[in-house]
Amino acid sequence: MIKRTALKSNLAIAAAIVSLGACNTSKTTMADAKTDNSVVTVVEQQRQPNRVPATPYPIKYVQPSGDTLTIRLHGDERHHWAETIDGYLILQKEDGTYDYAYRNAEGKLISLEIVAQDAEKRDVETVKAIEKAKVR
């Protein structure tokens, strides 16, 4: 009974989409709508709330130490990460400091415990450490 209700519900949504002309072609029929990927995509999008993407613009961030760091945010409110302007992964710690980071085998960001800096402020040892850890 539940499956039949869900099917009727999905067909009603597909019918509404077809009537609004949201499918790929103007000759789309209900039979096509059942298998048309655009219908499935639209239906799936209706089930999930809209996600807000991160700003595409660089951000000047003031570290707790007072140093500034230019960062770029990626993703949305559910899946997000930050990088330095030149593409190094960074992770914000509880105290607000951004450290260089890398992704472990499970994809989780792990801090290198090295405070992130803009490229012109990095010393040779920092560059070697972040290159060795494959922070990009």
Give a short account of the largest sheet: 6 strands, antiparallel
According to DSSP, the number of beta strands is 6
**Number of helices, where a helix is a run of at least 4 consecutive DSSP H or I residues:** 4
- Distance N to C terminus: 51 Å
Give the domain tally.
2
Going by helix content, strand content and strand pairing, the class is alpha+beta
**What is the global morphology?**
globular
Oligomeric state: single chain
| Overall residue-averaged pLDDT value | 78
Instruction: Bin the helical content.
Output: 25-40%
Could you please describe the fold and organization of this structure?
- By secondary structure, the chain is α+β, with helices and mostly antiparallel strands.
- It contains four helices and six strands; from the N terminus they run H-H-H-E-E-E-E-E-E-H.
- It has helices spanning 2-20, 30-35, 37-47, 124-132; strands at 59-62, 68-75, 80-84, 89-92, 98-103, 109-115.
- A six-stranded antiparallel sheet has the order 1-2-3-4-5-6, with no helix packed on it.
- The chain starts with a helix and ends with a helix.
